[in-house]
Amino acid sequence: MEYRIVLDRWEIEPEQVRQALAALDPAALADLSAGGRLLRIATTLDADTVRARLAQAGLPDALGQLVLAPSVCCGGCSG
Asked: Is 36 exposed, middle or buried (0-12, 13-18, 19+ CB in 10 A)?
């Protein structure tokens, strides 16, 4: 699943987020796009777990901004 957070007033390092998620999902990815204002997270974790891990990574106030992005999976790599 891909989650997104618009970082209009928060600053975060994607590696901080990735490390917070990696304890539960070693394949999790996090990056910034849109000039560093959009945090994208790819993980198998559900939204509640992502929110908890983001709070631990220093984004407790941004959690209301967490949005599940529509799937772009074509199914080709795993089934």
From this structure: exposed
* CA triple 26-17-60, angle to 5 deg: 130
- The secondary structure of residue 25, as a DSSP letter, is -
Beta bridge partners of 3: 41, 68
CB 22 within 8 A of CB 29: no
Count CB neighbours of 41 within 10 A.
Answer: 24
Cβ pair 40, 31 in contact under 8 A: yes
Angle at 1 between CA 46 and CA 65, to 5 degrees: 70
pLDDT tens-place string over residues 16-28:
889 989 999 999 9
Q: Rounded to whole angstroms, how far apart are CA atoms 69 and 58?
A: 22
pTM value is 0.79
